[in-house]
Amino acid sequence: MNKEWDGSEASFRNLFDEFYPALCMFAYGYVKDEAEAADIVQECFLTFWNSRAKFDNYLKIKSFLYIIVRNCSLNYIRAHRYKTEDVSDLESSVFFTNNLIEKEAFRIFYRAVNSLPERSREVILLSLDGLKNNEIAEELSIAESSVHTLKKIAYKKLKLLLKDYYYLVFIFLSELE
Description:
Blueprint: H1 9-31, H2 34-50, H3 58-80, H4 88-91, H5 93-114, H6 118-128, H7 133-140, H8 144-161, H9 166-176
Helix pairs in contact: 1-2, 1-3, 1-5, 2-3, 6-8, 7-8
C-alpha cells in the first residue's frame, strides 16, 4: 500500500482494502462472531472517514483503526454478554498486543502473497489451505512438477518481499512445508 494519506476517496479505498480483512480478524479475536466483527470494522471505518481531516499520516491512521476496533469490540462484549462474564483478559494490553501482532503479520504476509503472479499465488494459497502438491496439481489442472516449480519461485519472491519481516517467512513458509 502507498503509505501516503491525502484524505481522498481513492486513498480511503486503498486503506480499506489493505486493513479490512486484518481488522475483521482482530475484532473476531474479541467478539468471536464473524458477522459482528465485520459490522464493528465497517462502523470504525465510517468513524474514521468522518474524522479523516484530523489525520495526516499512515501510522496515526493505522494506530487509530486498531484502537477503535478494540474499543468497539469491548463495548460490544460489555453490551451483549452476561454482566458476570469477566472481560479483564480481553481488556489487557497483553491480549491487545498479541492480537495486534498476529493480525498485522497476517496482513503483511497476505499482501505479499497477493502481489505474486496469479498462478504462484493460487499455488501458495492452496498450500496454505493444506493441499499437497498432487492435490494442487489436480485442482489447477497442471502437472505436479509445475506446482513444485511455482512453489519454489513463489518462496524466493516471498523471501525477497518479506526480507524485512524474516520472522513471517519462517512462520508461514514452515506451514507450507
